[in-house]
Amino acid sequence: IHSFCKKDDHNKENLFNSLNYDVAAKKRKKDLINNKAKTQYFHQEKWIYVHKGSTKERHGYCTLGEAFNRLDFSSAILDSRRFNYVVRLLELIAKSQLTSLSGIAQKNYMNILEKVVQKVLEDQQNIRLIRELLQTLYTSLCTLVQRVGKSVLVGNINMWVHRMESILHWQQQLNNIQITRPPFKGTTFTDLPLCLQLNIMQRLSDGRDLVSLGQVAPDLQVLSEDRLLWKKLCQYHFTDRQIRKRLILSDKGQLDWKKMYFKLIRCYPRKEQYGDTLQLCRHCHILSWKGTDHPCTANNPETCSTSLSPQEFINLFRF
After folding, report:
1. pLDDT tens, 253-303?
2. What is the pTM assigned to this prediction?
3. Where is coiled-coil annotated (predicted)?
4. Helices 80-92 and 103-123, interaxial angle, to 10°?
5. Rounded distance, CA 165 to CA 222, Å?
6. Residue 149 domain-assigned (yes or no)
7. Domain that holds residue 241
């Protein structure tokens, strides 16, 4: 009897351990399915049909969250031509469209954002762009979490607090980046003739990049203050009417184009230009990335596609 009791206790202990294992396994499976999962939810098709008009069909199947799930943004951020487009889209969603995303779309949004941050940490490029995106998202979440009692966000409040902590961690990682100088491989930028240096600087579309470049060396500082350089930058981003409303004269009585540029960007949106954008087929109303095959019945589908800016993409789903 004594040996039997010991055997029974041993079986009970094994049963108890087995139950604990099952509970732990179920919890891990539940976490994987819910918001702790790192695997993006995606569809096999990389395009989505945009319904015309405000109909029940459109409301049911053509939402911003559905489009965000199906347009393969995870792969797009790996393409240098699409990276800035996706980042701008993430920023616009962070400003005003977070509550328009479904629970799965919000999870995908955070997963894609994490991949963007990791890419920037590895490449050490576009650091300022991602800092601004994270700050915009954190500010929006601070406002939305305070209104959580009104069900403006999908999910538990603790989950969103955890996501905000992740954003703070990413910001700290970006702040701690130490950009390593590449090994000397021959001719540098300052070795080029001044006319070529100025020509290259004219290709920069952000005035803050010009200011940063001017801090590298004294000679570049002189070039970065060139009036014609800042004049072309103002004319590229803003209309003549906008410029006339924000005229600033220097001490010498000349137009101070540099000061005018930074005043103009506070008053008007800058011109946006991207290497690759999302395309909307006017014939079949299908939204996809350029080069993505979709079931178009037009004789020449390439002529039916029109490029969409990030803001125009979001406007498709406002109804």
Report:
1. 888 999 999 999 999 988 888 888 998 888 888 888 887 777 777 777 677
2. 0.75
3. none
4. 130
5. 43
6. yes
7. 206-267
